[in-house]
Design goal:
CATH topology of the largest domain: Rossmann fold
Oligomer: single chain
CATH architecture of the largest domain: 3-Layer(aba) Sandwich
CATH class of the largest domain: Alpha Beta
Strand order of the largest sheet: 7-6-8-9-10-12
Number of helices: 15
Helix content: 40-55%
Number of strands: 12
Number of domains: 3
Radius of gyration: 25 Å
Shape: globular
Order of helices and strands: EHEEHEEHEHEHEHEHEHEEHHHHHHH
């Protein structure tokens, strides 16, 4: 007797989505973020065009994560993405003009972080490099100029001295840039469009004898550790979490592919704060007693010092020194002690395996509870969370 074959009642599997990475500019951290999202959501991530300018014409799939350019639009990439006729999200400022949902790091947030970083070091003269018409550069430049103008500060715009193919032309461009820097007021804080542009400022300073950071404090953007930490003067930088940035772009693309929508135009993505290295490790003040107090804090933060100890190290009264700090550094004596200790706590959390108890001892605090209170006044997370997050991201803090 034949038995009827029962019907298959298993739910049909959702077809696996295929998403293409089409990047005119590559960063492994962004690739890693897209890969993480793909693994978590069952995508097939096609990296054929992640690092190649060979266009996959006729590619068939469900969506595209693209970057249509870095400092300039690559029209061929735009034509290719349009030709596919698929949902797409762009990781640049260019996609918005093509009607694509776009995600870029928030220039206002970058400018605010840079402004705070420079102000904490007592700087009063500022510059932006390079002054260039490229839309992504102007995007950040306008934000920085506006942020400083809110506090009554002018930003000097440094021209982009372009190099040629010959070694002599490269040297001449660096020397031209150095001569321009010599003509600007000092001490000067320079915010650069990227770490690579920051490297140009460092080279120019070296050629004309300007001291970094005492004459020129240099701050990059991106925190590309391969660039920042391989220099004779390691470069401070505004950190951009490119892994989280690409992950967010995938979330936006997923929403579009699911029949929903992503925010129209350009969406801002926050930066991750400033990573301090030697290129901005300076406190600039022309007040001799404030400078003496700052040096005392820098040399004795590892002891249980307080405001009275700092006052005793100068020739001023407590009220007088407090007023001088507020005027010249825009912060109190106590805040300066806290700032220096937190900077060293961050370094020890990342660069060592010290326990929290040991770190507290190393920075002159009474114990774990006081360390947590000090750290959390400045940061929005606990010291343990900070250690975990920054070690996973490979970010070095100063």
């Amino acid at each position: 007797m034949q038995h009827a074959i029962p019907p298959d009642t298993r739910p049909a599997q959702t077809p696996r989505r295929s998403v293409l990475l089409a990047l005119a500019w590559y960063d492994h951290r962004a690739h890693r973020g897209a890969t993480r999202y793909a693994l978590e959501h069952g995508w097939h991530l096609d990296a054929t065009m992640a690092q190649s300018q060979e266009f996959a014409h006729g590619w068939q799939g469900d969506g595209v994560i693209c970057k249509l350019g870095c400092t300039k639009l690559h029209p061929a990439y735009l034509d290719f993405v349009r030709g596919l006729g698929l949902p797409a999200v762009d990781l640049s400022v260019f996609g918005q003009d093509a009607g694509l949902p776009s995600l870029e790091f928030d220039p206002g947030d970058i400018a605010a972080q840079a402004r705070q970083h420079f102000f904490e070091r007592g700087l009063h003269q500022f510059a932006w490099f390079p002054d260039d018409p490229a839309p992504p550069i102007r995007f950040r430049q306008r934000a920085f100029v506006g942020a400083m103008a809110e506090h009554g500060h002018e930003v000097h715009l440094i021209p982009a001295y372009h190099t040629g193919d010959q070694r002599k032309a490269w040297q001449e461009a660096a020397e031209d840039l150095g001569r321009h820097l010599l003509g600007l007021p000092r001490p000067l804080g320079v915010l650069c469009f990227s770490d690579e542009w920051g490297l140009k400022i460092l080279e120019a300073c070296q050629r004309v004898g300007l001291n970094v950071p005492n004459d020129v404090a240099v701050l990059g953007i991106n925190n590309n550790t391969l660039v920042c930490e391989s220099l004779s003067v390691p470069l401070s930088s505004v950190a951009l979490d490119m892994e989280a940035w690409a992950y967010r772009a995938c979330e936006m693309l997923d929403a579009v592919m699911n029949g929903g929508g992503a925010p129209a135009g350009l969406s801002p993505f926050p930066c991750s704060g400033v990573v301090t290295r030697r290129s901005t490790d300076v406190v600039a003040t022309d007040h001799p007693e404030v400078a003496k107090a700052v040096r005392f804090i820098a040399e004795h933060y590892h002891r249980p010092i307080g405001v009275d100890d700092v006052v005793e190290a100068t020739r001023m009264t407590r009220p007088g020194l407090k007023r001088a700090f507020a005027r010249h550094l825009r912060r109190s004596i106590r805040e300066e002690i806290q700032r220096v200790r937190v900077r060293h706590i961050k370094r020890l959390l990342i660069e060592t395996d010290y326990t929290i108890e040991t770190i507290a001892e190393e920075v002159g605090l009474a114990g774990v509870r006081q360390l947590y209170q000090t750290f959390e006044r400045v940061e929005s997370i606990t010291p343990r969370q900070y250690r975990l997050q920054h070690r996973e991201a490979g970010v070095q803090a100063g």
